[in-house]
Amino acid sequence: MPEYTTLSRTTGATVLTLVAVACAAGLADVLRRRRGRTRARGPLEAGRRHTPHGTPTIPRQRRTGPHAEAVRLTDAERDAFAVLVRRLSGGG
Fold first, then answer.
1. Quick one: CA dihedral 46, 48, 49, 51, positive or negative?
2. Cα gap 18→51, rounded to integer Å
3. What is the 3-state secondary structure (H, E, C) of the chain?
4. Within 13 A of 56's CA, how many CA atoms are on the CB side?
5. Confidence bin at 20 (pLDDT 50/70/90)
6. 14-20 mean pLDDT
7. Any idea which UniProt keywords this protein has (predicted)?
8. How far is CA 71 from CA 64, 74, 81, 84, in A?
């Protein structure tokens, strides 16, 4: 940083830039909302729900997972499965 540039001057320029960007974003949002109100909605957009920001909403997801399946094994099948597990785990 050059000698004549102080920390407060650099900080002030940074803050001023951030405020200008925030104002520009706010102005763009206001103009976009205003344009959205005057524009006629087409047949495809008429049934969609929108958030206050104008983007389509995502349908709600199920909170539960798929149902667990259960299979009843006979004693012979259970024993064969136990042998298979022992072989695969290295237990002989």
1. negative
2. 27
3. CCCCCCHHHHHHHHHHHHHHHHHHHHHHHHHHHHHHHHCCCCCCCCCCCECCCCCECCCCCCCCCCCCCCCCCCHHHHHHHHHHHHHHCCCC
4. 7
5. very high
6. 91
7. Membrane, Transmembrane, Transmembrane helix
8. 21, 10, 13, 17
